[in-house]
Amino acid sequence: MEDMLRDAFNIRSHGEQSFPPDFIISEDCNIGGNVFCETGTSAPNEEPNEEAAKFYNLLNKMNEELCEGSKYSKLSFCIRLFQLKCLGGWTGNSFTMLLEFLREMFPFAKIPQSCQDMKRLIKYLGLGYDKIHSCPNDCMLYWGDQKNQQSCHVCGKSRWMNSNTEDVNTDEGGAQLRKKPVKVLRYFPLIPRLQRLFMSSKTAESMRWHNDQRTDDGLLIHPADSLAWKSFESKFPSFASDPRNVRLGLAADGFNPFKIMSTSYSTWPVVLVPYNLPPWICMMQSSFILSMIIPGEKGPGNDIDIYLQPLIEELKQLWSGVETYDVLRKENFNLRAALLWTINDFPAYANLSGWSTKGRYACPCCAAQTCSKWLYNGKKFSYMGHHRWLDENHKFKFQRTLFDGTEEYRGAPEQTVGSEILFMLKDINFSYGNMNQPPITQTRRRSRDESDDESDEEDDPNEAELWKKRSIFFELPYWEHNILRHNLDVMHIEKNVCENIIGTILNVDGKSKDNLQSRLDLVDMRIRRDLHPQVLPNGKYRLPPSIFSMSKKEKEVFCMVLKDIKVPDAYASNISRCVIFKDRRLYSLKSHDYHILMQDLLPIALRCCMSKNVTSCIIELSNIMKAICGKVLNVDELEKVQDRAALTLCNLEKIFPPSFFTIMVHLVIHLPHEAILGGPIFYRWMCPIERFLSKLKSYCRNKRYPEGSIAEGYLEEECMTFCSRYLEDAETRLNRPSRNAGLNDHDLAETYLFQSYGEPIGKLEIVELDDISWIQAHRYVWSGKDVNDEIKWLSQGPNRVIKRYSAFLINGYRFHTKYRERMRRTKNCGVVVNSSITSYASARDSNPVEGNVEYYGLLTDIIELDYYGRWKVILFRCDWADVNTARGIKKDQFGFTMVNFSRLIHTGQQLMDEPYVFSSQVKQVFYSKDPTDEGWYVVLRNTPRDLFDMGNGSRDDIVERSETLPFPEQNLDENIPSTSTQYQWVRDDVNEDIYE
């Protein structure tokens, strides 16, 4: 507890430097003293400064017993109890009621009277925030030189509410009016929060992890491995010379703080992510730094730069450096920090970058070279032309009829560098504030003769409004040199792409991209004549079914696969609840549901109800998303993925109508390159940020002041996060194990052979093995390759009385026996074991070949063998599919592995059968039933969510360290016809749609 106080106030014990640098603790004072002395002088009667007074006040509370004989002091009791409040999400009133009850029960204990009293006691352990008034129209902040202004110098609006909304405070001086500001920005200063990371003995070492402990093996595991990080260090070697200098990411997004979603209100937090930390800490919510809360009711839009001014000023100061104490090195140093990039969804991308993400040039990566076409009937832009990324002699570039009716001779667009952007922005004039925006006029209908003809495609992009403003980030002296300034959010891109696919293939009203308007656009473009709408005598339109159209029966099969599938624990939500079998559609899917569908379940559901050319393209698209979403990336592989992404999108252009290719579908082409620049997506997408915003939303208890309620809740959580680092004997958010982490007792693990130690779950049974099972289990342990002579000498056979479990946690997996989960909606009994075997070409072959064979099984029993108290072993008994013959395993037309458990390799009832394996040998898989082939199941792999394998410094272990194994790579040249004469646009076996 004393270490926590000293780290919080940067007050060192004897022999260490104290804060402020010009003062040290007097040598003749004890630990409870309150005397600060200047260096080399004596001032026994001098009063302590403000920081020291806070420190010694809390130190006295720490030394003050809660009650006689208690092991807790008053301060430690308050911290532990307040930690429970934050952990359990208790309200202030309920916490006060608890304190009142405790005071009645223990009248001699020194317990605070209310929640507010406890907050006042421990508030100095946390950090505060500043309230900065803003113009109601977002024109300016009353900050800096303009702090004392009473009205906006831009629009003239008063900073105060009307007098009828003011509060009247009655005191001894009479009635006094207290003015209320219309809008208040709550800003959390960054510098003291970064300084505390180095002043705390619990975090100082982690802030150097990227330099001292990171494995540099050429793979992308951490942002420090990325090209953007290394390019920044080469550009600014003085910044890179000290590994303690902080690299930051900035995320911003809005949310409705009220649970009543019909209420239009948007609060915008801005969050900072320190990337110096190791992967397992970096993206934890406890590591995020809330920078500010921008007030509603409406989002700031392009005026967000007004609110970012305090942060930009601090970042400028941090670029020069601030003096900070490093508790690890016991020295003061010049702390510097730099902003690497921003993380945001696509609308916020426009607000932060200044680029307009709507219209003809919506792609910020292609910029003025964006290839788009206006669809007159669909009344939107289509973004095709992905054959620009193919080789210059690729056949697709010259196939007009299979694409949008044009040949493509251009190459891939080049990235615009920061200096070029600044040159384009030099003439941009932008006035902040809602009152200064041009009025929204009704746009006239586009004429077919004035746009999107051949000459319009060559328009000078300088004539278009490409930039809306000059981003405030360019005020940072290094921002123009960052090669990745704003990240494309993979989470929302993946969601929108998957939503497009599902809505189109299921023909969902309002979601399908294949409708009457899209067919009329085909008529305008003079392509795919077989799909043109046909006018019936009654005036209605008949739409020939496209190649991706599904019959009623096929839609039912698609929904049945998703309805019946069971996934492992903590893998995904129960997607079967989102399937409406009657209407043959999906509903209420969240972003993570689309993530799971896009990367795993969608190809499995389509393989048995969709044509081969469509399914193979979607499988390839799934492989691309998997490749860029892995925790471990290989630059060479990503360059291949870039080529595959171009080819896949080109083949999708031959299948889906132009209306399918929204800007979000187009952005897929840029994701592999951004992964090369920025490293793993895990650090650069909105998934962890959205979860953090959801947590901030839970702090909103006072609906009248949502931003203030959120700010106070965050301060409490931030304070308890700091304190919890020192509460080693209490459960906190930092040391709370994940759901499937298992036990971590090193001494106990030493008694288990073959690293089979884990955490059993459920009821323990003590049973006696039968003779056959006893021999099978003991034989498998005896034949283990790692057993040395001493263990063989000790092992005279295990005790016949064994322990039996129904569930087990090991290596981040949760395993259940088949019997345990018979009534559950999860499937945790699927296992796979990789075994090395020796094969011979013939009986006379003298050169055997070593190979690996994967055995797939269903877990039926978990036992613990006891070698009479000396050694223990956990074994899994499984039903193994026959992988030696075609009756038990096969590959389908897309390369998926399929197994049949009605054909087992053995029953386990014979003495020579081998049903057992070590618990440490297995990995988890799950199976999807094939509705078209009775008894067969498709194999899908699962990987632990919270494990980070940092490697051994070699590139050879990339396969073992891959987070998600992709589906088999599809040969699109063979699966999809390459000429218009071979291509079939219409399905003859599906009923057509009729439109009025």
TrEMBL record:
Segments forming domain DUF4216:
863-939
Instruction: Name the domain of life.
Output: Eukaryota
Compositional bias ranges of the Polar residues kind:
433-442
Q: Which Pfam families match?
A: DUF4216, DUF4218, Transposase_21
| Residue ranges annotated for the DUF4218 domain, each copy included | 628-740
Cite the InterPro entries for this sequence. DUF4216, DUF4218, Transposase_21
Annotated region (Disordered) at 433-463
Regions of biased composition (Acidic residues) lie at 450-463
Read off the PANTHER family from this record: OS08G0208400 PROTEIN, PTHR10775:SF173
| Name used for this protein in its record | Transposase
Please report the organism this UniProt entry assigns to the protein. Answer: Gossypium anomalum
